[in-house]
Amino acid sequence: MRILGIETSCDETATAVVEDGTKILSNVVASSQELHQKTGGIIPEIAAREQIRCIIPVIEETIKPFSHSAIDALAVTVGPGLIGSLLVGVETAKTLSYVWHKPIIPVNHLVAHIYANWLESKPEFPAIALVVSGGHTDLVLMKNHPSKGRDKLRWLGGTRDDAAGECFDKCARVLGLGYPGGPAISAAAEKFPISNCKATSSAYFQFPIKLPRPMIETEDFDFSFSGLKTAVINEVKKLKDNQQFNNITIQQLSFEVQEAITDVLVEKTIRAAEKFKVKSILLAGGVAANKRLKEKLSNHLIINCSFLSQNFVPTTLLILPAVPFSTSSQSLGKKSLSIPGWESTKKLLIKFKNLSSYFFPRKTFHVLTVFLAQLSS
């Protein structure tokens, strides 16, 4: 059985054909990152317009090796995300469903981020998932797969304002480092002497900068990063007023931004893992690719948890998705994978082969039908 997946939750148009839940046969990603680099961040209207421009060519390229009759079902991201971008993918999937008479599988892309950890590993339950990206920062407790019951997936807490990835982007813009902010700040932080074990340098002590770690000591599992962004803006203003804003202080601020964000993420994640005595800690989302975040979580488990903490299950493992699976900005290529619950999904699709006519009345379709109908020829 082959499924055509459509992902348009933000600034990228991504589609893939997956066979029997185990093999990616075709995968195409179109990104509007270059456009957003000019503004230092994602502008939703521009992202949506690029989705409209790219969606048909991307699908055509993805299904080029196949006829539409070889596609058994459609899977599409229905949220969360930018509403304009999401609508492009959802309306496209609805139209193809109508034209091709194929069922649709709605997908929550945050859950999909979490399940990227099953592509190359077999996490044990219970598990804590830290979902951290440009738009989301959430801690999720997984007692089992959601297919075993809705109560098996429990949201513990999330950001009250800016997401961690958004904070990276906005701080990078203030520092003049460009977009995307996460990789830019990480690269600048690595150049700062104290971050690569050259602490004898006087650079750190000449302009001592210490940024806040928002909500790190609160007992809940919520986050807040807007205050950190404001602190960076104030520090930059102070440095500029004193004519001290230079490469060294930019590197130092980048180092502190990364340390502050990752300190909070790690502290909250470890605290949740200890409270619920989990066997696995899962990283998910684009910020999961951050090297420093992975280092801190790994070191914390080795030093403080696996061997020393009585509150921790000794077999707790940190599951790290491969970089291509942590964010949709990477091309997957052909890849074998294992999707939990695939067999039950397969049976459901066979049982409800013409489910699309139930989901979407004809009047919901617009002129997109005319263009996408060409794909069925």
Task: Give your account of this protein's structure.
The chain has helices at residues 33-37, 44-62, 83-100, 109-115, 164-175, 181-191, 203-206, 226-241, 247-276, 291-305, 323-326, 342-351, 356-359, 368-372, and strands at 2-7, 12-19, 23-31, 73-79, 104-108, 127-132, 137-142, 153-158, 280-284, 317-319. The chain folds into two domains: 2-113 and 327-376, ATPase, nucleotide binding domain (Nucleotidyltransferase, domain 5), CATH 3.30.420; 122-320, ATPase, nucleotide binding domain (Nucleotidyltransferase, domain 5, 2-Layer Sandwich). The two termini are 21 Å apart. With 377 residues, it is of the alpha/beta class. It is globular and about 65 Å long. It is an enzyme of class 2 (transferase). Belongs to the KAE1 / TsaD family. Its cofactor is Fe(2+). It catalyses: L-threonylcarbamoyladenylate + adenosine(37) in tRNA = N(6)-L-threonylcarbamoyladenosine(37) in tRNA + AMP + H(+).
* E-strand count: 10
Which topology of the largest domain does CATH recognise?
Nucleotidyltransferase, domain 5
So, the CATH homologous superfamily of the largest domain? ATPase, nucleotide binding domain
How are the strands of the biggest sheet laid out side by side?
3-2-1-4-5
Helix/strand structural class: alpha/beta
Oligomer: single chain
Helix content: 40-55%
State which percent range the strand residues make up.
15-25%
Q: Determine Rg (CA atoms, Å).
A: 22 Å
Number of helices: 14
At CATH level 2, the architecture of the largest domain is: 2-Layer Sandwich
What does the main sheet amount to? 5 strands, mixed
Q: How far apart lie the N and C ends?
A: 21 Å
What is the domain total for the residues? 2
| CATH top-level class of the largest domain | Alpha Beta
